[in-house]
Design brief:
By secondary structure, the protein is mostly beta strands. It has one domain. The protein contains 1 helix and 37 strands. The strands form 4 sheets. It has a 14-stranded mixed beta sheet with strand order 1-2-3-6-9-12-15-18-21-24-27-30-33-37, with helices on one face. An 11-stranded parallel beta sheet has the order 4-7-10-13-16-19-22-25-28-31-34, with no helix packed on it. β2, α1 (about 30-35) and β3 form a beta-alpha-beta unit. Residues about 120-125, about 235-245, about 265-270, about 385-390 and about 405-420 have low confidence and may be disordered.
């Protein structure tokens, strides 16, 4: 039986993972599977020694490492402890929780997680592969697949989607599961953090970095991404349909988001998808708040594509309802597109197509700077097909810098948005 150590003020059973026989196990999965009696009154800690822990996905569509069916376990290590999926069947690196094997009160702390592939065989445009999956992707169940999951001080690197979180069906009977993200460094060629389904997320002091067509550190090769976003709220997917899903409660404080488009084919045809925060398709964004956060989006593409940039974008909102608030922060968008024919738009905040009847968007006490080295006009706000009789779009205390005060997509710039006291 493993011994005990004190960690975070609590005595825990201690399992070690390292490269030699001096440790209990040589890989994290065997250490996890060995635990049979973890509980709130009997917590465990798995310590990863520095080294590279590699294995293939269990099967197509499954992760390489699956942490499920247990409670009260912390997996900890340093950045030099690297958990990595290697070539083989497509799938994520680490998955947490499953509908039939719930994971509760699980903490990952300090180590590095890498998924170097974009899809089966590494082919661009194949199914997204995350470094870390929380919950089930196949459908949005009404049963709780996990609860109280914490990621802190992690280095998370995904070639397509770095961190994907899947919640429950909003019509289900359960309280939405809770996720805590603290002081993580999250890198991706594609979406960095994707939120799908009904959950409660608290995100604090994370650094989000997305860059296409250039290698990320020593881990990922150069890869084009067909869209690049920092936080992506996507309510459209799932076998049960897409119009009743969303993030019930999302709070971000002090997160820093940097998105860089570098090279050809980095953004594809949909200009609204290249941004710091992206709300796309479906419903259920009940309460989302970003406070004290910064967004920087830079386009340095070298070909004539629609390399559109947005600090915050709403696209195909359909029946979205609830509050979206961005306050006490900054948005800096700089379009440096080198091509000659594409419109290459740049917007601080873009509201594209229809929002739901009860959608409230508030941008408060935020510095917005938009620059465009192309002919297209930079806009602090861009509103297209938005009916303000049905939605509340407010701004307060905004400092906006843009070369052109005309919104060619649908009305005036600040004048079309309610100034609130």
């Amino acid at each position: 039986m493993p011994g005990k150590i004190s960690w975070r003020g609590q005595e825990r059973r201690h399992i070690t993972v390292g490269p030699t026989a001096a440790y209990h196990f040589n890989n994290p999965q065997d250490a996890w599977d060995s635990i049979k009696d973890s509980a709130a009154e009997n917590p465990y800690i798995i310590s990863l020694e520095p080294g590279i822990y590699e294995r293939e996905a269990i099967a197509v569509g499954f992760p390489a490492w699956w942490f499920k069916g247990k409670t009260d376990i912390s997996v900890v290590g340093s950045r030099q402890a690297v958990v990595r999926k290697i070539a083989g069947a497509s799938g994520g690196t680490i998955a947490i929780g499953a509908v039939d094997e719930i994971a509760e009160r699980i903490r990952l702390s300090g180590f590095t997680v890498v998924n170097p592939l974009t899809g089966a065989g590494g082919a661009q445009g194949a199914a997204p592969e995350g470094a870390i999956y929380i919950g089930e992707e196949e459908e949005y169940p009404d049963t709780l697949p996990y609860n109280d999951i914490e990621l802190e001080n992690m280095h998370i690197i995904g070639s397509h989607d770095a961190l994907q979180m899947f919640g429950t069906d909003t019509t289900g009977p359960n309280i939405p599961p809770r996720i805590f993200l603290r002081n993580n460094f999250i890198e991706s060629h594609h979406d960095a953090v994707t939120i799908k389904g009904n959950m409660q997320v608290q995100s604090c002091s994370n650094q989000i970095f997305v860059k296409t067509n250039e290698s990320l550190g020593n881990y990922l090769p150069s890869t084009s991404g067909w869209k690049s976003t920092g936080f992506h709220f996507n309510c459209a997917r799932g076998t049960s349909g897409g119009n009743d899903r969303g993030a019930a409660y999302f709070r971000s404080a002090g997160d820093q988001i940097v998105v860089v488009g570098n090279g050809s084919n980095n953004f594809g045809g949909d200009q609204s998808q290249c941004c710091g925060i992206y709300v796309y398709n479906g419903s259920g964004i009940y309460s989302v708040t970003f406070n004290g956060c910064s967004i920087k989006v830079i386009g340095i593409a070298d070909s004539d594509i629609d390399n559109g940039l947005n600090g915050i974008a709403f696209f195909q909102g359909k029946s979205l309802s609830g509050d979206f608030v961005f306050s006490n922060g900054s948005i800096d968008v700089h379009q440096q597109h080198a091509g000659s024919s594409a419109p290459a738009e740049a917007n601080g905040v873009k509201l594209q197509q229809s929002l739901g009847d009860d959608q409230v968007v508030r941008i408060v006490d935020t510095y917005i700077r938009v620059r465009n080295d192309k002919s297209a006009s930079p806009l602090a706000y861009s509103m297209n097909s938005i009916d303000q009789a049905e939605n509340i779009i407010e701004h307060k205390g905004i400092v906006a810098i843009a070369a052109d005060g005309t919104n060619t997509a649908g009305g005036g710039l600040i004048t079309n948005i309610a100034e609130v006291a």
